[in-house]
Amino acid sequence: RKPDVGSVLESLDSVIHLSLQDAETFKDLFAARSFLEQAMARNAARNISDVQLQLLRQRLDLNGEAIGDRREFVRTDALFHRTLFEVADNRIFEAIHDAFAGWVEERRSSLQRQSFTEQRAHRQHTEIFNAIAGRDPDAAETAMRHHLQGWWAAWCAQKEPPQEEYADTENVDS
Prior knowledge:
The structure is a single chain. The protein has helices at residues 5-19, 23-47, 50-65, 70-87, 91-108, 115-133, 137-159. It has 174 residues and is mostly helical. Helix 2 crosses helix 4 (70-87).
């Protein structure tokens, strides 16, 4: 069988899972994810089709309906984010998203999530959606950055000793 992007990332999976035990590696992985997610939000604001925008809206609505059902909320959260990668219409980006989602979920599953946390995440998803629907790349990128900073802050507060913030936080106009 000829290797494809998915199989290459799968082969890295065990190495990455072991590396996630190291806080610095996880921090770097999260910063890479943040960089790509912001780029995908910016790209979506520029290039999303009406059909893709409708799909993003449907996935946002499913995410809102899942508040209070942690497992379903996490699933629909990943679907919402994956839609942004699908807009790029690039199998490599989609495979990278799927790998990031799995790697981050391994850590995220231990976070205490309550309905108010899910409500906040859904509000942030709505802000991302609105910026994309408004075809505003700067606002889409900023909304995504704020969304991921919130996740990182929650992670640090619950699981890690205080550490410097990941790279993108110093560029935020709060």
